[in-house]
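Tutorial, part two.
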Amino acid sequence: MGGGQAGLAAGYHLRRAGLDFTILDAQPEPGGAWRHGWDSLRLFSPARHSPLPGWPMPRYPGDGYPTAQHVVDYLTAYEKRYELPVERGVRVRSVRRVDSGYDVDGRFAEAVISATGTWWRPFVPALARRLGGRQLHTVQYRNPRQLTGQRVVVVGGGNSGAQIAADLAGHVDLTWITRRPPRYLPDEIDGRTLFGIATHNPGGVGALGDIVAVPPVREARDRGLLTAHPMDRELLAAADTVIWCTGFRPALGHLAPLGLRDHHGRVTGRPRLHLLGYGNWTGPASATLIGVGPTARAAVRTIADEPGAAPRSRSRISRSPST
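Running the prediction step on this input gives:
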């Protein structure tokens, strides 16, 4: 479930394992969440350091790091290259345990990989409900033109907050609010380095900083245009528009019938059910292009090693009998 980068990485390894499978994707076109980012969104790394398994991302022809559209083009071509069986416009509502497998909205599957990501479940603090004015989240921001002449407050000290604040700097009356002073990673660190740190350091990259200094952020910072302020309700109340760059939560509503959360709120596994690409808790850097491959390979290896998982000539996801 999910036809973005995590679903495609899983599809690549399922194809190599000789297993029959179907990828169900709610989106009408390839590209996953990359199709929905803001206009200036770019990768943290050069194309050669942003591969899915099997086929490196083609070189980006322009200057700097690849744009989101370049990633969309790559994912579209990747899907075609490996002839991955994607069914589009299929939004999975519920997954239930049945004998020998799972019922996926009336389809029977012996194994399930959930790769729906986080973009579709933006997190906005409860404080937003007590404010007037226009409220946006990262997912709704496109470019400065939609906010011309406004007093805009950007809330969030992570990468999206810094990038959107840098995008707006000089175009609107901008205030940037962060929970603590911004922590920029050293300028020479990019996504390739971050992946190596996340893979080999159990503590992750948090100790180094929160913000990758991609060129637009670095330029705005060095020009003195990214001055962060602590949380201030008066600043929020005075804004024409507040953009909440406050992160996301895993989009797991379709798995609610399985009761995966324990009394501490942690997600626990089930046989032949794999969660892929939701962040570090599903594998080091598994929400990144380069990082999702190893966890996808491990999940497929587990499925392939299950008794009765030998390849068959017809799809192993089919309409379930009446239940």
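The domain at 5-120+248-319 is CATH 3.50.50.60 (FAD/NAD(P)-binding domain). In part three we will examine how such features are distributed along the chain.
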